[in-house]
Amino acid sequence: MLGHEHSDNDLSGTVHGPAIQSGKVYGGIHFHTEAAPEARGPKPPWQLPPSIRITGRSAEVKTLEGHRARATREGHPTLAAVSGLGGVGKTAVALAWLHTIRPHFPGGQLYADMGAQAPGGPVDPGEVVGRFLRALGVPTPQVPPVLAERVALYRSLTADRRLVVMLDDAATAAQVRPLLPAGQCVTAVTSRRRLPGLSVDGGHVIHLEPLGREAAVELLDSTLADGRVAAQPEEARALVDLCAGLPLAVRIAGARLAARPRHGITTMVRALTEEHDRLEALAIDGDHDVRAALDLSYQGLPAGAAHLYRLLGLHPGREFGGPVADAVLGSDAADALDVLYDASLLIDAGQAAGAERYRFHDLVRLHALAQADRDESPEERAAALHRIGYHYLANATRAEELIDPQHRTMARDFGPGPVVVAEFGDGGAGAADAALDWLEHELPNLMAVLRIARAAGIPALGWQLADAMWPLFLRRKFYEEWREAHREGLLAAEECGDEAAVCRMLTSGGLGELDMDCPEQALGMFERAAASFLRTGDALGHARTLNYRGLAHQRLGEPDRAAGFFGRAAAELPDCGDRRAGALARFNLADVALSRGLYEEAAREAEAARDVLREAGDTYNTARADALAGRAYLGLGRLDRAEAGLRAALDTLRPMSAGYETARALGGLALVSEGRGQPGLARRCYREALVLYSAVGGPDSADAQEVRARLGALGPEAGENGTADDGDAAG
């Protein structure tokens, strides 16, 4: 693992901003350094869930569209909030409207479930704006860590873009406000609350009332589509009255009737009346009308589907795929899922990686959870929750193996089994990319499982899950989750009394803090791990922390202390049996020497490190050592040696999409070209380096600004003779 006491993949060298670090690279792995936005032209995001047919809401949709038209004429962004009871159809109305205006908004559509009714509470708007920035093409390392900076960037990106944003199930106006785009964009908010505070932001608030009787009957008729409503009009009216005109309740009752084509509507009316009478004393905010329909639908489920319904209510995340249902049941759940979907108890949440996704309406999820509490024993509820957790751990571990085969060095516990493990891609060269995409898509669920692991009595799963997510944190820089996962993982490891796991969380968490430019915090974590290794007599683990502590001191601007730690690591690690980690320590020594202008020492240490790294099969860090040696020879004025090292590095780094290190090698080649009087070659190298630096660290990063200055110093391109030695420097 990169940066761990018993790993084959250790962090080394000065960490410059979001630099990519990896020990070994295996076929199909890409580090996903993005090209600059202007260079790659990202596709617009299209995130809205599918729209469903709505009935009796044409006036509301017309009102929303009229508000948009006025805002557009006046040159303002459009903000509309749709409020109403649970089950009244707020999301359906908003989606119906937004899908109709898609042709007018080529900038894309963003969607977020704000989680006002979610089991874990409302979503942090900072998390949502971070997701929106990534969807708009901002490379993950460029997403600012501070909410105010994220919002500023979000507003800048949306100022000239015609974009639709939907914020579903919002808790408060304050939660929504940071997510309002700029420019001629449209934002739709749904909430059980009226959110009058959004009026301050120019919002138009409409409150949905339950459907009128005739509209509700029409919805029932479209759900059944078999003539029973026309044949029994009075019974149909009585049924929708019992549903209180709430579309969710009408659909659920209609779905049950549709599954029983020989039953008359009268039978449903009688049964629903009895449920209403039973629930009347428990009425909360009108939800009893939906709950009565839910109870009746639940009672009609086959035993297997009812069992799955109850257990899926325990799922801690907002949506899930079919494999999760298989894991919950311990067998194939496809038929039971179909029954639940046909009964309108599950909502289509789209697809991910070609697989169907599902979610509960929040009222349905609460109902499922209540039935689990009533009809499942505490032991079965705990076992189902454990199966869900082990499912995610097993899949995250499989993804980790595909992306970073050398990372896992500690045992994982997947419970009594069997566990359901998904396939990633077609099993070929793209499997690692597919696995990384899976980790990113499932990150909300992975974090939800991690947060409940200790309370669920499985703390070991908590730290193991944090460990398994390492490849995602390393490559796509989800900094907030990186920090939270390792803090929670550390608590879980401490609860287990597992000192090795504690050190694992400290070192990988510390590397995250270092990547987030918090070197003091990182140093404290590394020192705590070092003390633990000393107590347990783990000489190798302790020697590895010398490297990490050196990196922290280097980031703190203490090169002498850093060099001292690197020197000790370089001496002790080979004696402990890890020559490769010792070579990385020598690489770090070379980096410190280069920063001090000690070019002979830097070249000597870099080449010594390179030879060992090459022997260990570490192609990525071998290339970094070649580049470092090349820069050292550049300082010595030995241009041929410098070019040889830099070109060798570039040949390896480019196919890995290792943007930052590639840019550094290009910058070195540009200086070689300048030294040879070849401004055309230098200019081309600088331009490519600028694109890469802008993608990795942002267009205003120090590296990007330095390259712009070098380009400016070269003067205009006109008048260059284009001779043979002014060819492709990067070729």
Q: In one word, what is the shape?
A: globular
Task: Give the amount of beta strand, in percent.
Answer: 5-15%
- Terminal CA distance: 33 Å
Mean pLDDT: 87
Work out the oligomeric state of the chains in this entry.
single chain
Spatial order of strands in the largest sheet: 2-3-4-1-5
State Rg. Answer: 30 Å
Number of helices: 33
Structural class: mainly alpha
What does the largest sheet look like? 5 strands, parallel
Low-confidence stretches: 1-40, 281-285, 719-729
Record field, number of beta strands: 8
Short recap of the structure:
With 731 residues, this protein is mostly helical.
Give a written overview of the molecule.
The chain is mainly alpha-helical and 731 residues long. Helices cover 59% and strands 5% of the residues. A five-stranded parallel β-sheet has the order 2-3-4-1-5, with helices on both faces. A three-stranded antiparallel β-sheet has the order 6-8-7. β7 and β8 form a beta hairpin. The protein is globular, with a radius of gyration of 30 Å. The two termini are 33 Å apart. The model is unreliable at 1-40, 281-285 and 719-729 (pLDDT under 50).
